[in-house]
Amino acid sequence: xxxxxxxxxxxxxxxxLSSFAPGSRNGKAADHxxxxxxxxxxxxxxxxxxxxxxxxxxxxxxxxxxxPSQIYPNEYQISVTTRSPLANVQNTVxxxxxxxxVTVLDNNPDTKNPTWFPRKMADLDMxxxxxxxxxxxxESDHPGFKDPVYRARRQELADLATSYRxxxxxxxxxxxxxxTKTWGEVFRKLTSLYPTHACAEHLRVFPLLIENxxxxxxxxxxxxxxxxxxxxxxxxxxxxx
Length: 241
Description:
Blueprint: E1 2-3, E2 34-41, H1 46-56, E3 61-68, E4 75-82, H2 86-96, E5 102-106, H3 148-163, H4 177-197, H5 200-213, H6 223-234, E6 236-237
Antiparallel strand pairs: 1-6, 2-4, 2-5, 3-4
């Protein structure tokens, strides 16, 4: 699910920079943008004292942001952005870590980069081809492992997900009579258990899904219908994976 807005790091923690920017060589700059998050105490000159580390290491800052900490009333969270070489950034971070907590985020969307995060919804397209397709990679103990029809159907649905790009209309699936029948069996069983086993939140929302999203015994809901209702109600939206 996606939601408009931005996430705020409230409590940066120490981290290493060794695995960041796997495309760099000999400390030279790759085309990466680094965001360094750290904390300072709320007193005159505290930020200036730490900015000296950036100057001494030759790190040029393209953006500086600050905001009061929502956890510690006497601290501020500082976010600085740079495209300086990795070696310079590492040097600065090591000095910062001697006086405050530090987190470094790298915009390189590599699967080995633990700090990358999407900054806009279209960034999620970078991972479209990395989802577990389950069409050719089922474990041998999976119930559908020896079922060629099931595997082909799984691959077909996986292809819809991997080909989707942000801005496209969500794909609608044509479900077979057998798939709809199976859905109906599950639908009847679960709905019979909801009054005694479901939480209050589910009991409140499920009738809305029936009314707005096509949840019925004889109909498998389409992702687009669910996503549109979800977006209108909460601001979240769905994408296939």
